[in-house]
Design brief:
Layout (H helix, E strand, L loop, with lengths): L1 H7 L1 H27 L4 H30 L4 H14 L1 H23 L4 H32 L2 H9 L14 H9 L1
């Protein structure tokens, strides 16, 4: 199933990956440029606006990647839905951002401390990036379930009911009900 979905959504993934790379590079260069050239209130306003756009885009990214591989939507629909979910899930996004910020600060602290510098230098490559992506998906997934799935499928996922492979979308079998009751 995984390889089928990857093949099916290859074009959208490559397109968004290219756009994602370009947008992140532009936002980083804008923030660095505006930060180094704060001379008047307009530059400060532009820096704040660019930081807000960067935050909005960082909140939007997990929604896009989840929708590319979960639903069969056109590229523009994915972008529109991700922007809407970013606004609808602002509370979860801010909490996830706060936790991610704490993890990055902890990692930076480990790099600065001389006793644990080797651990701090290895941590981003082993743990930090994966943990930040996990937090992003953890924040985004409940909103996608709530707003994009029909009620029965969403309840099945939330209640962890198990379906036979040929009964997806139908009522669960008695074996599945007894399995979920035993849990």
């Amino acid at each position: 199933d995984f390889f089928y979905i990857v093949k099916r959504n290859k074009k959208q993934s490559l397109l968004f990956g290219a756009i994602d790379f370009i947008l992140i590079a532009v936002l980083i260069s804008d923030v660095v440029f505006l930060y180094n050239n704060i001379a008047n209130p307009i530059s400060l306003f532009m820096l704040i606006l660019t930081l807000a756009m960067s935050a909005f885009y960082s909140f939007m990214r997990p929604y896009v990647y989840l929708m590319i591989f979960t639903f069969d939507l056109k590229f523009i629909q994915i972008i529109k839905n991700a922007a809407a979910f970013t606004i609808l899930g602002i509370k979860r996004n801010l909490v996830g951002f706060g936790i991610s910020l704490l993890i990055v600060i902890l990692n930076a602290g480990l790099i600065v401390l001389p006793l644990v510098t080797p651990v701090g230098l290895l941590l981003p490559f082993v743990f930090t990036f994966a943990l930040l992506d996990f937090i992003g998906v953890y924040v985004a997934y409940p909103n996608i379930i709530k707003y994009m799935m029909d009620e029965k499928d969403a309840k099945a996922i939330i209640e962890r009911k198990y379906y036979d492979s040929d009964e997806i979308g139908d009522e669960p079998t008695e074996d599945c009900d007894t399995l979920s009751e035993k849990e």
